[in-house]
């Protein structure tokens, strides 16, 4: 049976904005995070503490984290590729850090400039420091359903990274379809395998929607008992390493799906639709949420 409640992690402020060429003002980023938290998200991925040379859009992470209102019970997460990033996250009072590794060697090189094994070694002191300071740790496994360079990614490679993240002490692990190539059959195979390696209730689905499969994949993951999903308001985003890749699945569409299935999310869809309109207008991008557009037209 499918879960009766799920946690939706809103990743728009980070995954959705990180590839915007034009710098999005810190004030807009802060308003986005604040409005999302007010709409009921218990976890908002708010910034990255990565090299500004690699991802210039996220260079104001400290200012964003400093400017937001903190709601009790809301976790504000940030990406940290190394100890330097962790120090920034700690100073910024992040509630959760996100380490990210790939199930594909080629992608690891392009995204974080090192091999999978090297990346795990680099994350070790980061996770240890986070634990010491009582921060939650999430591990994100990129290219779990396919890679722009090597194409097919064996299920065993995904399980291998999940096991390494589990051994490091991750509290939650994301199975990410970075370039949105996955289909429901593969999604079930991957989740069926990773739930043998890590507790099901602490695994999440992070789907990009390039091939229009994200909602179907979420349903497939629900059938495997997965209770945590990532989404980006207005479907913001794209991937610089994969031509034509689109953003995360749109949050409004995921909420519409969950509402239809009678699955509790604790999030107000109408508020999220308004936030989707706000951010699309602010950055001059079309709103690609189907449910968002339909509800705005009403
Ligand atoms: P590098 O160039 O190999 O490392 O980058 P480095 O240690 O030589 O550092 C280069 C420069 O960056 C140095 O500055 C460092 O100080 C600085 P310089 O001395 O030249 O002036 N630096 C930093 N600055 C601020 N904060 C830091 C930091 N670290 C180094 N934390 C590195 C290696 C990992 C740093 C780099 O490759 C990087 O930052 N990569 C981040 C890539 C990224 O953010 N990708 C997008 C997020 S992942 C994602 O979107 C996937 C996900 O959504 C799931 C999915 O869909 O798959 C999560
Ligand atoms: Mg992503």
Average pLDDT, to the nearest integer?
96
Beta-strand portion reads 5-15%
Largest sheet: 8 strands, parallel, barrel
Structural class: alpha/beta
Topology pattern, helix = H, strand = E: EHHEHEHEHHEHEHEHEHHH
Low-confidence stretches at least 5 residues in length (pLDDT < 50)?
Answer: none
Main β-sheet, spatial strand arrangement: 1-2-3-4-5-6-7-8
**Nearest-angstrom radius of gyration?**
17 Å
| N→C terminal distance | 34 Å
Number of helices, counting only DSSP H or I runs of 4 residues or more: 12
Counting DSSP E segments of at least 2 residues, the number of strands comes to: 8
Q: What sort of overall outline do the alpha carbons produce when their principal axes are compared?
A: globular
Tags for this model:
298 residues, alpha/beta, 8-stranded parallel beta barrel, 12 helices, binds 3-hydroxy-3-methylglutaryl-coenzyme A, binds magnesium ion, HMG_CoA_lyase_AS, HMGL, metal ion binding, metal-binding
What's the quick description here?
The chain is an alpha/beta fold and 298 residues long.
Could you describe the 3D structure shown?
The mean pLDDT is 96. An 8-stranded parallel beta barrel has the order 1-2-3-4-5-6-7-8, surrounded by 7 helices. The protein has 298 residues and is an alpha/beta fold. It has 12 helices and 8 strands. The radius of gyration is 17 Å and the shape is globular. Helix 3 links the parallel strand 2 and strand 3. Helix 11 packs across helix 12. The site of 3-hydroxy-3-methylglutaryl-coenzyme A has 26 residues, from helix 4, helix 5 and strand 5. 3-hydroxy-3-methylglutaryl-coenzyme A binds next to helix 4, helix 5 and strand 5.
């Amino acid at each position: 049976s499918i879960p009766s409640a799920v946690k939706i992690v809103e990743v728009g402020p980070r995954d959705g904005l990180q590839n915007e060429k034009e710098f999005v003002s810190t004030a807009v980023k802060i308003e986005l995070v604040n409005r999302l938290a007010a709409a009921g998200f218990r976890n908002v991925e708010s910034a990255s503490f990565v090299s500004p040379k690699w991802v210039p859009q996220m260079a104001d992470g400290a200012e964003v984290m400093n400017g937001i209102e903190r709601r009790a019970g809301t976790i504000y997460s940030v990406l940290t590729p190394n100890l330097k990033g962790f120090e920034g996250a700690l100073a910024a009072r992040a509630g959760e850090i996100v380490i990210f590794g790939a199930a594909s060697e080629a992608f690891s090189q392009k995204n974080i400039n090192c091999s999978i094994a090297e990346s795990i070694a680099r994350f070790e002191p980061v996770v240890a420091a986070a634990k010491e300071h009582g921060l939650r740790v999430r591990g994100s496994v990129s290219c779990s359903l396919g890679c722009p360079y090597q194409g097919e990614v064996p299920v065993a490679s995904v399980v291998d990274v999940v096991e390494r993240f589990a051994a490091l002490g991750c509290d939650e692990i994301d199975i990410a379809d970075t370039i949105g190539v996955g289909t429901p059959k593969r999604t079930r195979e991957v989740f069926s395998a990773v739930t043998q390696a890590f507790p099901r209730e602490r695994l999440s689905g992070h789907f990009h929607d390039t091939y229009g499969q994200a909602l179907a994949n979420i349903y497939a993951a629900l059938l495997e008992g997965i209770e945590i999903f990532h989404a980006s308001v207005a479907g913001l985003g794209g991937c610089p390493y994969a031509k034509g890749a689109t953003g995360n699945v749109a949050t409004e569409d995921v909420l519409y799906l969950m509402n239809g299935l009678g699955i509790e999310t604790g999030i107000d869809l109408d508020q999220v639709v308004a936030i989707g309109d706000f951010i699309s207008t602010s950055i001059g991008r079309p709103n690609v949420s189907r449910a968002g557009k339909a509800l705005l037209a009403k």
